[in-house]
What does this fold into?
Amino acid sequence: AQTVTQSQPEMSVQEAETVTLSCTYDTSESDYYLFWYKQPPSRQMILVIRQEAYKQQNATENRFSVNFQKAAKSFSLKISDSQLGDAAMYFCAYSGTYKYIFGTGTRLKVLA
Amino acid sequence: EADIYQTPRYLVIGTGKKITLECSQTMGHDKMYWYQQDPGMELHLIHYSYGVNSTEKGDLSSESTVSRIRTEHFPLTLESARPSHTSQYLCASSGAGGPFNEQFFGPGTRLTVL
It folds into this structure.
């Protein structure tokens, strides 16, 4: 069975600094996607970034980038130049042939 | 504008009442999902649908029921609300092309049962 683990319930980062959120997963499938979603307080969940398993190149979206280590089944999110608006719950998600699984989330606090 | 809508946004109701949480999407997505989420906590999948007249129970047992009579509409019903049903309910949808697609989320309904 597939699993997604986020071992950091809460993280803090100083404004303008860089923070990395961790995510590990387990699967026997070879073809799958990985996602990071952001849920700001009392606001809609939105997609931050996605990674296709067959692509070796790490995905990047502006200040957001991932470190995808397929052999280690690791998928961390790096946020550069953190801004107050980055404060949110971040969920790692796995999408395979039959299942879409979310991790338990990491609450990110951004300190001014 | 293509989007996903949930009504009501907030609902406070007494024990034993029947309620229906509405979810509609205008993106033409075939897959729709209901999640239960306590504030700031993880998401639990309670129902999903891969198309009209197709509904399945999710990983978390729920006393709610769903229907999918139209592609764009996926309502969730609680026949008799109880305080244990107090939570946030999120609706999501995703497009064709397998389960690899991004899920688009509605704003959620925050339910309080007294």
